[in-house]
Fold:
Amino acid sequence: MIYLDYQATTPLAPEVVAAMTPWLDKFANPHSPSRWGREAAAAIAVARAAVDRAIGLPGDTSIFTGSATEAINLAIKGTFERSTRRKLVTVATEHAAVLDTAEWLQDQGVDVVRLPVGRDGIVDIEAARLAIDADTALVAAMLVNNEIGVLQPVAELARLARGAGALMLCDAVQGLGRVAIPDGCDLVAVSAHKIHGPKGIGALWVREGTQVAPLVHGGGQERGLRSGTLSPMLCAGFGAAAKLAAERRDADRQHVEQLWSAALEALGPGWTLNGSSEQRYRGNLNLRRDGLDAARLLADLRDIAFSLGSACASGSGRPSHVLRAIGLSDAQARGSIRLGFGRYTREEELVDACRRIAATARAQQDLAA
Structure:
């Protein structure tokens, strides 16, 4: 299998496996005052510090959650629980964790504004300027889009939010370890399994002084914002992955840039890039081809792992909301594929996969002619 689905999840780094393995046998509760419990708590503290360094923002520390989806729900719902303001401003191309939570809030009487994007996938800043006002409690935007890889101007959105007295949530799930997270954010959601860490753990960085109400009540763990017993093994894995992501960011970026160029050359002509060609993370290659049945292409190439869009929405049968938001027709959206690659992708396997994808796409079109 050639794995080209890095936006869905990433392979575990060997260093992460090594960091997690001892905690299979060390079973103590990290919230216990026993010596073993204190050892587990110390390991979690080391992991938390590594996640904070990878996020790279000054101020307070992260709290661990069960996923980035939970972190986003905590940030959004927790903000509105504490705020008297009743408007959420977000972007039409956000992940379902944001958009579905926004829809839930709308049912609770919150005014939700979903900002449009251009053909390049970049948010309309003038629309944002008009929407973010004195009634806005929170602005939520993804740093790197999970489907098409474009970079949103989070720093500018944060400046507008701050000017209106609102908070700024950055979904940095696809950006952590790849691009710098802009200062000015009040809440940052991240995930371990997108940076070669384990599934089942995410984190929410909360700027000091930011008021968020908890969603889960119980023992008061994680500064009272997320009760529940932490897993030292998962935390240790996240910490090791975050440490690697921070240390290898430049090397990983250079590797991805080389892979991007090699992939485009191997695919050849006839493909159109979805989203901005410049303002994007290049480990995400989202392309379309006129007349292509991408679902059939995926079925014909079962030994190549790639996708048609967000893994969270796969199998729905509906065209991607992201591709529709950038102006693609249903046919164009259904003729689009996403190739994701990164640290452990070898150039020769990527080139082989892209050549086979291109050849199979051409053969499909020849049969249809």
About this structure: The mean pLDDT is 96.
